[in-house]
Amino acid sequence: MSHSIHSQSERQTVYSSDYSTKGVDILPNLVDAPYTHHLIDGMQEPGPSEVARPLYTSHFMDRTETMRESRSMYLKVVGVGVVAMIIVMFSVFSIYWGALWKIPERSLDGWVVNFDDSTVGNAVVQAMLSSTASSGIVSWTNKSASEFPGGVDDVADAVLDQRTWVAVVVHPNTTRLLQSAVLSMNSSYDGSTALTAYAVEARNENAFRILIRPVVEGTLNAVSLGIAISFVKQVGSSYPQIIANISTAAPQILAQPVGYTLNNLRPFDVPVASAMTYVGLIYVLVLAFFIVNFSAAAREMSGLETSLTTRSLIFLRLASSFVSYFMLAFFYSLLCLAFQVDFSRTLGRSGFVVFWMLNYVGMLAVGLSLEAMLTLLTARFVGFFVIFWIISNVSVCFMPLEVLPGIFRYGYAFPFYNVSGAVRTIIFGTKNQLGLQFGILLAWMGVSLITLPLFQWLFRRGAVAKAKAVTHRAGEKDS
């Protein structure tokens, strides 16, 4: 009888703060996947030094044996952590540094379309093609005007359709209009209508501002100046009797016989959109990581982590993620709306709902990956994956993948790249690839919906085996 009472009291001590191994017949229920092994490893009787050590009385440099052991362990753990971060710095940070290191590693595509097919047009085409070697940023290709039966509008549509990054058009009859202006001394002649460069800033504002616009303006300024010098010489030799009259009546003909206009078909005219296409994506991932941590803590504190069956635990984790991200995505979208972002430009009234669903699916794509990796790496090491996950995604959003080294082509299949592209379509009306972009994000969700249950099942099985082993050892000790 006394033995029975003694056993019952020992079993109750399993809930004490020292996680004593007494009463371990409850251990088979401790079958949590990512956390149980930490719990079981800690369920040991405190060593003599731990029992004897007074609380809050030691100094770090004390020479006692206990403090020497503690100090050594502390320095080892911190040292290993620093070494690990140095390794992460060189292995993971190098992804982002590498993306910016040699921009542009490759050239952007550019078209020259000659609808004039005469003196001015031929001169412009020759000058543009020869500039490719000097700039190395835009690789110009001469496109036949016959490929665009709709004329200049077809070229603009091709740029909007992202078949090229920039196109320079020599308008029809440019040479004839210039010659006519000389003979009639037309004071209303405007040389800037001779050439038009088409580009889409909203496709990638950084590429437009840093690469495309400077190259196009620099090249066309040089072309315009070269044509002006040759033209003045030609007019002076062919029409010496009227050149003085032209300089008085229509000086712009001599100053700029051929100019250009840069037509930005889709300007990036909503500055706050930068938060949604680049930096804000990092914040979204961080929010998802917080949800992962909050959910894990809630399961631990409530005891659900160890009391639920594997199937119920998997369902709980997935349901928590889907519901939490649904709400977060809604309020994140409201935040963007509060700063007067117009979501109706392209999709009308449904634009906001599509934006909300994009953020929802995007959060699930990155958040479920974190949820799965938490199971695999545990809370202690999942932070390393978070760093990799952020940097590998951000690296492919700042500049077009076309100018980055070939290794960064992985970005076409990564969440941030597709969310960024979809946001540009919704807000600015760039090429609509929403179906493809949503599909890629859903594919990431699908991968996580497979890996998360798999990882949870594997670790739960290992935790059960470990718990049984501890129970067996405790039983042998009691006997």
TrEMBL record:
<dbReference type="InterPro" id="IPR053001">
    <property type="entry name" value="MNNG_permease-like"/>
</dbReference>
<feature type="transmembrane region" description="Helical">
    <location>
        <begin position="73"/>
        <end position="99"/>
    </location>
</feature>
<feature type="transmembrane region" description="Helical">
    <location>
        <begin position="275"/>
        <end position="294"/>
    </location>
</feature>
<dbReference type="GO" id="GO:0016020">
    <property type="term" value="C:membrane"/>
</dbReference>
<feature type="transmembrane region" description="Helical">
    <location>
        <begin position="353"/>
        <end position="374"/>
    </location>
</feature>
<dbReference type="InterPro" id="IPR022703">
    <property type="entry name" value="DUF3533"/>
</dbReference>
<feature type="domain" description="DUF3533">
    <location>
        <begin position="83"/>
        <end position="449"/>
    </location>
</feature>
<feature type="transmembrane region" description="Helical">
    <location>
        <begin position="438"/>
        <end position="459"/>
    </location>
</feature>
<dbReference type="Pfam" id="PF12051">
    <property type="entry name" value="DUF3533"/>
</dbReference>
<protein>
    <recommendedName>
        <fullName>DUF3533 domain-containing protein</fullName>
    </recommendedName>
</protein>
<keyword id="KW-1133">Transmembrane helix</keyword>
<feature type="transmembrane region" description="Helical">
    <location>
        <begin position="315"/>
        <end position="341"/>
    </location>
</feature>
<keyword id="KW-0812">Transmembrane</keyword>
<keyword id="KW-0472">Membrane</keyword>
<feature type="transmembrane region" description="Helical">
    <location>
        <begin position="381"/>
        <end position="401"/>
    </location>
</feature>
